[in-house]
Amino acid sequence: MKKSFYLPFLSILFLIGCSSDDDDVTTPVDPDPVEETPYYEIPEALVGYYEGIDFSEENEELYDDLATRTIAKHTNMLDYTDRHDYLYKADEDPAKPDNVVLIYTGESRYWEEYLSGGNSYDPQTFNTEHVYPQSLVDNTAKGDLHHLRAADVQVNQSRGNYPFTDGEGSYELIDGNKFFPGDEWRGDVARMIMYMNLRYNEPFDEMGGLELFLEWNAEDPVSTLELQRNEVIYDAQGNRNPFIDNPHLATRLWGGDEAQNRWNGEPVEEDNEAPSAPQAVTVSEVGYETLDLSWEAATDNVGVVKYNIMLDGESISSTSSTSTSLSDLTPGTTYSITVAAVDAAGNVSEESDAVEATTNEDTEAPSTPANLTVGTVTANSVSLSWDASTDNVEVKEYDLFLDGEYNATTTNTEFTVAGLEAETQYSFTVLARDIYDNESVQSAAVEATTTEETGNGGGTSAELFFSEYVEGGGLNKAVEIANVTGEEVDLSAYSIQKQVNGDGEWRDAYALEGTLASGDVFVVINGGADIQAIIDASDASLSGAPVDFNGDDPIGLFKDGVLIDMIGVDGDVEFAKDVTLRRKSTVTAPNTTYTEDEWEVLEKNTVDGLGTY
After folding, report:
1. DSSP type of residue 61
2. What DSSP designation does 330 have?
3. pLDDT (tens digit, 9 = 90+) per residue, 428-443?
4. C-alpha distances out from residue 24 to 12, 18, 28, Å
5. Residue 407 CB-density burial (10 A; 0-12 exposed, 13-18 middle, 19+ buried)
6. Which of 11, 179, 208, 380 has the lowest tally of Cβ within 10 angstroms?
7. Is the whole model's pTM more than 0.85, yes or no?
8. Cβ partners under 8 Å of residue 54, min gap 6
């Protein structure tokens, strides 16, 4: 492990063993000598996590042991997009469970106000701050919750990627290129930066320097919110921030001012007393997959920091408030629920008296789709539409049947059945399915006869066009180009380009190669894709641009340098974030103006149709 950033200090034993009267020995002087603590009295709740680490070791040996443990325990590597599943619970306001506490300002904001992705909640007031800037870390670290915090959008923008510096009072930008987080957040920042050094070998000097963070770690003790975050993140990704568990570990590793020792008396006395058991656990607002839970607060000699929720004897979640909502339950199921209180030292109370609750069961099928109607008919396709069904819970999707056999599923109330034979009569029906897979009866059948073949060998378009667009999770991105001209097409005249955030400038041209048979498609994917169906459909795999688009980056198909088809719109508009777009088979020509009505919108990572048209 690299240690170019590591600043070891001399042990007291070494200083004692050196005589100042010996002219042959020059004794280095530690500017901040630290009285040694040979071991810690680790709280019972943390003994298993830190088992095997010898805390009497010095400097490099203890650093290596802690780093190895922190890395090994990080078993769930979260993508940056996964933060929405955990961050707002980690930053939950203990006084207002539906809110989050924002770093630097300390404001409490409703948790759904985050500015990210396709969130449509209004207003959007906060986003995600990388305390160690994401531009300076690798992809693994970008999603590590230990250095992610909810932050006011404007304050986050003001901080930018600037290093931290000392100051006084509330947060402020100093000299236009350094940031002081505020007195209340100094310790939080220091312990997050120390974690990033321990876990990822990220240097201190780019962020403000180790000496500064040692000062902040000593001056600003661990807060209840930090303790809460450490527990939530531990549950989410498997590892802890040891400097939150005990800030004194930083003193042991790097010296500096004596920091809070949460494991050995001063300034926090050891706490072996468990909280009282929570009382009066009450269930309310029972749904199909959810229920609300509340209880009376437990008491403790120091303070309760969270409550563990047990479902049928298994711990499923925790909260710092005296109420919570349970989700992802099974409809029509009876659960036994208990609650236990946990204090800052990790002492756990006895479980509350159990309460039982039964979720609602849904056996009601949706209404039958009405007014199934035939629209455009071609030699090989028939477009259909129908009235939306209703349901006591929620309609999920519709199944299309062709001559009594299942053909396709859609979430829309219109669909084009393709791949049909010319001059052939077909019968169509449709049924509705709700989110619990209750099916309606099939609609009344409608019939349609396809037309005769056209003169261009069955083709329906005079030019190539985009037929599918995948903007999935991570690097699961692809575009599909269809040839329904009736003739084999030489691809050497065609290229794909993109715009960044719809800025109007086409760039990153990728020239297509080879030929494309009539009725076939050409699929270009991002080489980092990890969904096998995308990999299997690939005709060309690129390491990045132009197949590194996001939902606000238009994609263009060019012929001889001239734009002939386009997905997306000019301007910084998220036209297709985290979705798959599939072109309706009624479309018979490319279009340089993106038209939503030409596309069917499918859920994120839907790739079952990629590679065929």
Report:
1. H
2. P
3. 999 999 999 999 999 9
4. 20, 10, 13
5. middle
6. 11
7. no
8. 61, 62, 65
CB atoms within 10 A of CB 197: 24
CA distance 67 to 46: 16
Report the C-alpha gap between 255 and 30 in whole angstroms: 9
pLDDT band at 270 (very low <50, low <70, confident <90, very high): low
Tokens of 507: 């760039």
Sketch out the chain's domains with CATH numbers.
Answer: 44-254 (no CATH), 279-358 (2.60.40.10), 370-449 (2.60.40.10), 465-602 (2.60.40)
The three-point CA angle 81-83-84 to 5° equals 90
Provide the Cα torsion 561, 563, 566, 569; round to 10°.
110
How many CB atoms neighbour CB 24 within 10 A?
Answer: 5
Token code pair at residue 563: 């734009």
Q: Tell me the per-residue pLDDT of 45-56, one tens digit each, with 9 for 90 and over.
A: 899 999 999 998
- What is the C-alpha separation between 533 and 503, in angstroms, rounded? 32
Q: Cα 451 from chain centroid?
A: 48
The whole-angstrom separation of Cα 503 and Cα 11 is: 59
Structural tokens at position 564: 């002939």
| Distance separating alpha carbons of residues 131 and 103, to the nearest angstrom | 10
**Residue 34 pLDDT level (bands cut at 50, 70, 90):** very low
Given pLDDT bands bounded at 50, 70 and 90, which one contains residue 3? very low
**Contacts of residue 88, Cβ cutoff 8 Å, sequence gap at least 6:** 100, 111, 114, 150
133: its two tokens: 């800037």
Q: For residue 242, give Cα distances in angstroms to 50, 109, 250, 305, 597.
A: 9, 28, 9, 18, 54
Tokens of 8: 């070891």
Q: What is the pLDDT of residues 101-113, one digit of tens each?
A: 999 988 889 999 9
Rounded CA-CA distance 507/54 in Å is 56
The pLDDT of 274-291, averaged and rounded, is 94
How is residue 72 annotated by DSSP?
H
Give 334-388 pLDDT, tens digit per residue: 999 999 998 867 789 999 999 999 999 999 999 999 999 998 888 878 889 999 9
Q: What is the mean pLDDT of residues 598-606?
A: 91
Nearest-angstrom CA–CA distance, 253 and 526:
43
